[in-house]
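chain below, 462 aa
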Amino acid sequence: MKNKILSLFVSALIGCTYTSCTDLSDTVYSEITEEDFMSDPKSLDILMGQVYAKLGGPIADCSVWFNESTADCMIVPFRNVSNEWNGSNHIEKYTHTWNPKNADLKKLWDRSFSIVTAINLILPQIESSSMNETTKLQYDAELRMVRAYVYYNIIDHWGDVPLITSKDVKMEELTKTSSADIYKFMMNEFKECLPYLSHDNKNMYGRMHYYAALALKARYLINANVFLDTERKDNVYPFENEGLDECIDVCTEIIEDGGYKLEPDYFTNFKSDNEGSTENIFVIPFHRTYSMGVFGNAAQGFNLPRYCLHNSEQVYYGENVGNLWNGFSALPSMYYSFKSDDLRLKGWRVGLQTYNGEPLKCQKTGNMGDDLNFTIDWEIEECNEYDGARLAKYEFPNDLVGYSADNDFPVIRYADILLMKAEAIMRKNNWIATSEAVSLVNDVRNRSFENSASKDYYEYET
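prediction:
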């Protein structure tokens, strides 16, 4: 399954470097005309590969993690021992004091709209191609749904932005479109595109198939109250119940017809070979070698190891591992939100880090030679090299190539669908739990406890 989407990346790279033969005679038999090129679905796969390869860019360069750093999960703190990661820029995310000069925001903006541009260039080529109408409609719908995914991330970050759906728009003609109007536009896109998408979610792994698009629609619907509120003056949403009924219906269809199921082990979803997870609905595939440098968008493939690991941990990951940046740390409040017997705590590393029984050491001025003993409690703007629980949810292979790992990035999992349906049910019921909502949450939560029955939630009783 994963190899099929990776083959799109390779085909796209070959397509971009294609040259005719070196025969200098007047007749060039190897020349491919645009008409010939666009008559073959395999040629379309080359163009599609360019788009899918670009989706990995915001993950590879860390800009996709901006939301994590602005919320209550984890951040890159300013460590007194050095100015790692240009630390103050990461602190401004947590304190919500960023400005347009923030490098991660700029990267995310540029990469997002480069994907939109690529899609808008390809869509007219599909329309004018000589392929049969069924094939054209499927490819057209797939690309428009990828564009809907990109725009979801754009309006989630910025709200009102230019809505660009044509390759012919000039810069001076661009104006902002409200998030409400973009939301309404995307609802119409779902209506037009869903009937033409493939239901074969196995052979469409890593691509925008029917159930991936449905799951994306559920995300739009569950956030309709935010996207439709263009005033944004307080925490009262005038469209609180907008989209909830349809969100429930969409989630129900995925639950009943999609063939997905929860993994018994939560961490299966994040293994280095996680393409086999029964929860994967829409993922962005990575390969430690094949996705390196694809169109300049994923220079190290899935390179979360660089952002999470301490440099002294190089000893675990083979002779080809690159420099590690000692970055993301869990906020203490987030770490303490887990019950002590919650198996998901294994997704964070705390305490003394060792190799062959010997403590690993700090390497920066200020803590040089200190034991690498990851703490839980620390101060946001004043911490040491060893402070902070470190993200360990993803399994990294012990033979990293540079910083690159094989993990596929799960954009939407089956657990998301169960929890979105539960949220929609509760919001419709004035945030009071119903038996169905409670059951959905318990289904997701129970695998995190050995004695799960003792941790069950119960519906609210008056």
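The longest helix spans residues 103-128. The CA atoms of residues 78 and 381 lie 5 Å apart.
thats it, cya
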